[in-house]
Amino acid sequence: MSEFQDFLKRRFAYVAIGEFKPGRFDEACSLYEEAVSTYGQGFEGTFLLQEPGTDRGISIIFWDSPADMEANRSKEHEAILKKMKPLFAKPPEVTFYEVVCDVQPLQRGVGSGEQVGR
Questions:
Q1: Taking the model in full, what pTM does it have?
Q2: Which CATH number fits the domain that encloses residue 21?
């Protein structure tokens, strides 16, 4: 039964949409990588997306649970975020989502859709 429960378990995504001051995206990207390297238990991966030719981007960080995300807020992590804060043109828009669909390609290159826990 626990395998079935694991199948129904949903991940969560912390999403931040923001814009950095002109020319500061690369510096912010380095700090981002440093910040996420502090994550441990419950961290499932991340994407940092940049709109081509701009300093706008989207961060998506996957977690097993909201509690895991909170548990990973260390003093080291907060210090890195403090260094990143002045690089923003304005504060980012932040939202927390539940992952309800996760589509991964099959080995032979054909994708299959899966609704998680529905």
A1: 0.81
A2: 3.30.70.100
